[in-house]
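Researcher: Re-running this chain for the archive, since the previous output was lost when a drive failed. Same request as before.
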Amino acid sequence: MTDNPAGTGQAAPAPGSSPRLSFEFFPPRTDEGRESLREVTDRLCRLQPAFFSCTYGAGGSTRDGTRETIRQLLGVGLDAAPHLSIGADSKPDIFALLDDYREAGVRRIVALRGDLPSGLGRARFVHNAEALVGWIREHSGRHFHVEVAAYPETHPDAQSPADDLAFFKRKVEAGADSAITQYFYNTHAYLDFVNRCRQTGLALPIIPGIMPITNYDGIVRFSENCGADIPRWMKKHLEALKDDAPGLRAFGIEAVTRLCEELLAAGAPGLHFYTLNRWGATMAICRNLGLPGAGS
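Model: Regenerated structure tokens:
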């Protein structure tokens, strides 16, 4: 892959073209949630994303909901990528899911280790994402484009950044096509991670994960749970605005817009938005970026 002058070593979008966009949903649990998600999908379709993805709950807890959401997206002609977490599932269980998704028309899978249900503890993991990617290739060949997770700020379970990178390299070598990162708010963390990947010979596209900010308590809780760092300056602003919903939303949109601008200018090949099944903040950020379909 040709080095980008900004330092990511990735093939940035060609001048005049748009970055690869993708949007992540979780399976709605109610009829109201499903109807709302249809509206969200209709709105975000205007941005012509490469695909929509749908999460897979701890221990496969949303397996049926994930399949239902994926089938709903495929049914209206959209590219849809189910998350598939190995968790505690057996190899035959994973193969059966792969067959089900292939028959439904799925062409892309987001392959993750996933989480076990609360109370079981991390020690109960028998397999990991490297094994899952290998199983996908063993059973389905190259039918699926396989996305894996990356952690610019280091996976919470990793002993060191070097160990985390070594594990990521094994996932890629098992057959991954591209990667989506955990969200972050520090551009340097992403650039450093990508550069370290390139130094080890990994040339796959690494797409930044983007989390819009619209709620103080929510973003602090999410970030603590997944190991994402909120820079002190940003957290202080958010804390000061936590009782001013419009002000916090405006600050969050502006801050995340600047983050996206920096990432795209540095050569990031796309953006993957964690939408939380909402469209407003994501669309506002894309509008600020001047992306086609976002409106004026």
